[in-house]
Design brief:
The chain is of the alpha+beta class. It has two domains: 31-87, no CATH class; 102-322 and 342-347, no CATH class. Helices cover 23% and strands 21% of the residues. The protein is built from nine helices and ten strands. Strands 3, 4, 5, 6, 7, 8, 9 and 10 form an eight-stranded mixed sheet that branches. β6 (230-241) and β7 (244-259) form a beta hairpin. The longest helix is centred in the N-terminal third of the chain and has 23 residues, at 65-87. Residues 1-20 are annotated as: Disordered. The chain crosses the membrane at residues 67-86.
Length: 353
């Protein structure tokens, strides 16, 4: 018998076997996938379409199903992005994450009469050796590499810390002009909600005292006799873990203060603040120039033990005749109506001579 694949009459003379054309024969799946289709005889006779072919499938403008599906997915994603962008609360900050600031505030009552600086034109003349003007007294260390951070990364962390210390305890705008944005610009995103709550509604609850974030005085009551602040102390840096640097600062700061507004009394009061702060800086913070303020312990005087210190530090200002404060109140350990962290100390001598 002949090959069933051959025509009944055999291969025509001069013809060739189908094998020669096998590479150019289109199978059924190829034909179904074609983007255009020839019109039927009835459609051609009617002339309704005015053309010899028509697009296949349900694509838009002849577009394949896969392309149309992809376009639909992109459109839905764009619509979702627009919706959530519009519906999200404006100004929303990142939610708090990690350790939040804890604050301890200890006013220091004077042991005796508060007297003015001996020379109001040179109020720091009586300070003991060891104090320097502003940033020179911060005692920042030389940056050296740690186990997981390079020397340049440590230097960047120390630069952020120095910037924070300058704007939070040395800058006149922060001290007596209610400026809070300079400090806020350095606080890591996870602490911004706590920071804003502390500055907008300060309270002595160990977490929301504005004076934990910065040194500040009520501008309606206190003015700087000089913009110079004397400082002495240390800064130490190490690793909390492989991704976080931890910095501890411990400084004594001495401010020369006078009453706000005009006064005929030239008296200047030296006000001392010991401020110990623990700061953490992770790799993301290094890139953004921000830091996380973890703990702040503040001792400040001469102050009244009865005055609240969470919004502003409350100095007792000297007069030419001197001011005799009341004695610090006795603390009753059995009184649970008073928070245990609220305490008051007695101020030692700031200056000698």
């Amino acid at each position: 018998m002949g090959d069933p694949r051959e025509p009944p009459g055999g291969t025509p003379e001069g013809g060739s076997n189908d094998d020669e054309f096998r590479s150019v024969v289109f199978d059924e799946s190829f034909v179904r996938a074609a983007r255009i289709q020839e019109l039927s005889a009835q459609e051609r006779l009617s002339g309704a379409l005015g053309r010899a072919t028509r697009p296949r499938g349900w694509g838009w403008l002849g577009m394949p199903r896969q392309a149309l599906a992809l376009l639909l997915v992109v459109a839905l994603a764009f619509a979702a992005a627009v919706y959530f962008g519009i519906s999200s609360p404006r100004g929303q900050v990142a939610p708090p994450s990690g350790t939040q600031l804890s604050v301890s505030l200890t006013p220091l009552a004077p042991a005796g009469t508060v007297t003015a600086a001996a020379d109001h034109a040179n109020p720091f003349a009586g300070l003991p050796a060891g104090y320097a003007d502003g940033p020179a007294g911060l005692g920042l260390p030389t940056a050296t590499a740690t186990a997981h951070f390079t020397g340049s990364q440590v230097q960047r962390a120390l630069d952020s810390v120095q910037h924070y210390l300058v704007v939070s305890e040395l800058a006149p705008a922060t001290l007596t002009a209610n400026e809070t944005e300079q400090v806020r610009a350095l606080v890591t995103a996870g602490e911004l909600a706590q920071y804003d709550d502390s500055t907008n509604s300060p309270r002595d609850d160990q977490h929301h005292a504005a004076t934990g974030w910065m040194v500040r005085f009520d501008p309606g009551q206190i003015a700087l006799a000089t913009d110079t602040v004397k400082a002495a102390g240390t800064v130490r840096i190490g690793e909390l873990d492989g991704d976080t640097l931890e910095v501890t600062t411990d400084h004594t700061l001495v401010y020369a203060l006078r009453p706000a507004g005009t006064t005929s009394d030239p008296s200047v009061t030296l006000y001392a603040v010991r401020r110990a702060v623990r700061i953490q800086i992770d790799r993301t913070d290094l890139d953004t120039g921000r830091l996380r303020v973890v703990d702040a312990a503040v001792q400040a005087g001469p102050s009244s033990c009865a005055a609240g210190q969470s919004a502003y530090l409350q100095p007792l200002l000297a007069t030419a005749a001197g001011v005799r404060p009341s004695n610090p109140p006795a603390v009753d350990p059995a009184d649970h109506a008073r928070p245990a962290w609220q305490s008051c100390g007695v101020l030692g001598p700031i200056a000698t001579g």
